[in-house]
Amino acid sequence: MSEANDPSISIEALRRGDRQEFARLVDHYSPLIYRLALKMLGDEQDAEDVLQNTFLQAFRHLNEFEGRSTLSTWLYRIAANEALMLLRKRRPETALTDSLPEEEPLEEPTQFIDWCCLPEEELLSAEGRARLEAAIRLLPETLRVVFLLRDIEGLSIQETSQALGLSETAVKTRLLRARLRLREMLSAYYAERLNAGRKAYD
Amino acid sequence: MTDHEHAKCRELLGSLSDYVDGTLGEQLCQEIERHMRECQNCRVVVDTLRKTIHLYHQTAEPADLPNSVRQRLYRTLNLDEFSR
Ligand SMILES: [Zn+2]
Q: A176 CB contacts (<8 Å, ≥6 apart)?
């Protein structure tokens, strides 16, 4: 997860309007932005729209980039905003439901089967991977975006808070909620696999 | 499990993310570890939480941009000349 590391792109050159430098920026960050958008939206066309809009916005607003965050965090911020805007446009009725998840009490765990002993090739079988992907899509978008930035894109808590304009406390709370929900969903699935395995063995 | 113990589970739940990330203060760490020695449920929650995050790290495939998407992006940005 070191892909977001600074490929030493010159902000000075970008501000001067150096197109070759902008192309380097696009070249380096477009795969990361596309992956985030695809996992956020679950649709290739939507992800491509977000990708294009992110760099169009970046190009337009380069002179507003103040260097208080890294370039990658700034791009993630634009991309996350674009993705959330698109989701709200598609499904306006969901916009309010999960606006302030940190104010609700934490959902307590209900799954207590230990499935850690399952072999990695079973945990990460094609079906297992599909379940992992599906579980992300079942997260409310405000939790999903935090989880993706932190645990998939590998941003720090501080970078995630900068990218989303949230306090670090809010990021931590949402991250915990996202992880706990994913654990619940995966536990339900892997406990089933564990039982199936035991039955086959008996 | 008694209600008293369960209250502890609930109390510690909010710190589990920091705990598995290794960013929790020493005192709370010790409290969680002490509790886990007596609480099978919390042990399972912590282990499977850690495993869940580990699995997602494993599946974070290298970011890959389909060539057609890349071509259209470069065209949209008027960067065709730099599109290899
Ligand atoms: Zn407990």
A: A106, B14, B16, B17
Read off the pLDDT of each residue in A21-45 and give the average, rounded to a whole number: 95
pLDDT of residue A3: 43
Q: Could you tell me the pTM of the whole model?
A: 0.91
Examine the domain organization and report whether A62 and A122 are in the same domain: no
pLDDT tens-digit readout, A130-147: 999 999 999 999 999 999
**B60 touches A at CB < 8 Å:** yes
CATH number at residue A147: 1.10.10.10
Q: Which residue of B has its CA nearest to A123?
A: B55
- Per domain, the residue ranges of chain B are 3-79
**Cα angle: A3, vertex B48, A157; to 5 degrees:** 40
pLDDT in tens, B17-64: 999 999 999 999 999 999 999 999 999 999 999 999 999 999 887 788
The answer for residues whose C-beta is within 8 angstroms of residue A69's C-beta and 6 or more apart is A77, A159, A162, A163
Is the residue at A97 inside a domain?
A: no
The length of chain A is: 202
DSSP state of A98: T
Whether residues A6 and A85 share a domain: the answer is yes
> Range of A183's domain?
115-201
Same domain, A83 and A141: no
Chain-chain contact of A186 with B63 (C-beta, under 8 angstroms)? no
Q: Which positions ≥6 away from A86 have C-beta within 8 Å?
A: A41, A46, A49, A50
Residues on chain B touching A152 (C-beta within 8 angstroms):
56, 60
What was the pLDDT predicted at A94?
56
